[in-house]
Design goal:
EC 6.3.5.3; Mth169, Chain: A; ATP binding; phosphoribosylformylglycinamidine synthase activity; elongated; 83 residues; purine biosynthesis; 3-stranded antiparallel beta sheet; ligase; 2 helices
Length: 83
């Protein structure tokens, strides 16, 4: 069954305390090549049957109204992933 993957990230101007905590922990674990981390959310919407333009439009609407908070987050990617 195909899935629609929605990726949501904090807007660039919004502080990301989880990302800051992760970037602080990386050097202590030996990962010294990274200077910044932003943590986001990933949603996988499983579709029974074919992904039509109407279903994709519904996924976009859900991403903008339910899966993200448009005040502080951006929907950065919506893609169809075949099973």
């Amino acid at each position: 069954m195909p899935r629609i993957v929605v990726d949501v990230m904090p807007k660039p101007e919004i502080l990301d305390p989880q990302g800051k905590a992760i970037v602080g922990a990386l050097p202590r674990l030996g990962f010294t090549s990274f200077s910044a981390v932003r943590q986001g959310k990933r949603f996988e919407l499983t579709v029974d049957g074919e992904v039509t333009e109407d279903i994709l439009a519904q996924a976009r609407d859900a991403a903008e109204t339910l899966l993200s908070n448009p005040v502080i987050e951006d929907v950065v990617n919506i893609e169809v992933v075949e099973a």
